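Hello again, I could really use a second opinion on something today. I've been puzzling over a protein and I'd love to understand its fold better. I'm sending you its amino acid sequence along with the backbone structure tokens. It would help a lot if you went through both lines with me. I've dropped the whole record in just underneath, so have a look.
***
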Amino acid sequence: MNHLENLENKSIHILREAYNRFKNLCMLWSVGKDSTVLLSLARKAFFGHVPFPLVHIDTHYKIPEMIEYRDNLARQWRLDMIYGENADALENKLTFPDGNASRIECCKNLKTEALRNTLSGEWPRWRMNHETGQYERDRNTEPYTGVIAGIRADEEGSRSKERYFSPRDKNNDWDVGDQPPEFWGQYKTDFAPGTHIRVHPLLDWTELDVWEYIRKEDVPVVSLYFNQGDGKRYRSLGCWPCTSPADSDARDLDEIIEELKTGKFANIAERSGREQDKEDGGGLEELRKDGYM
């Protein structure tokens, strides 16, 4: 069994364990490469069917191609697709592009608060109707008490402190210093009532692992990851006002993988194009403690 097969088997085991142990699960789908690999793994784990809803937090500042890709794939794969948003912050222009918030504050408003209230069911959710192909107000307001997410430990410092099964309190707050040990493939899955669970099946994957798996499994990804002729491509996707592409000539999967193997980006963080990280000063970890992904 090779390296990718070992990673795949472990991730599928965690997905099945989560589905078996926890009720009212959802999976976060940012439509980036990592969460799309996670979606592909879920389809493999459950024989082509994803048995929990996909939740996307729409800031309304995503690159338009990302939203088009999200909806096209949701229709093609018949996904139970839901999105949430912070309508009040958008209406009142409490955002960085409107000049009324720092980047970190904008992330808190449009991502953290939107995620918290979408998961709890306190704010409206919008669910795709596959008969019409359009989104409608979701009548189900039951809280999601477990969330599956495609974060990786090597992607950003605060993510390296996560566990495969990571508990939060009922408000989604994360106590970084109180994490359950996970030794020898043994995972704690018996948590006290009211505990909110985050499940991270890709925690040990690397950027290179993700791209090699995308090539191996022919996972569809948004074209923003490839050089379109201007010598640039995105390594990490986010909101357009705060996300910049990297210098790269890689036009396809083989060239991305070769580029990573050469070590071109060895000393350049994968999220170096995410401006909120540069504003950070510990802010991202604080956002993650409050529920940010």
In short: The chain has a mean pLDDT of 89.
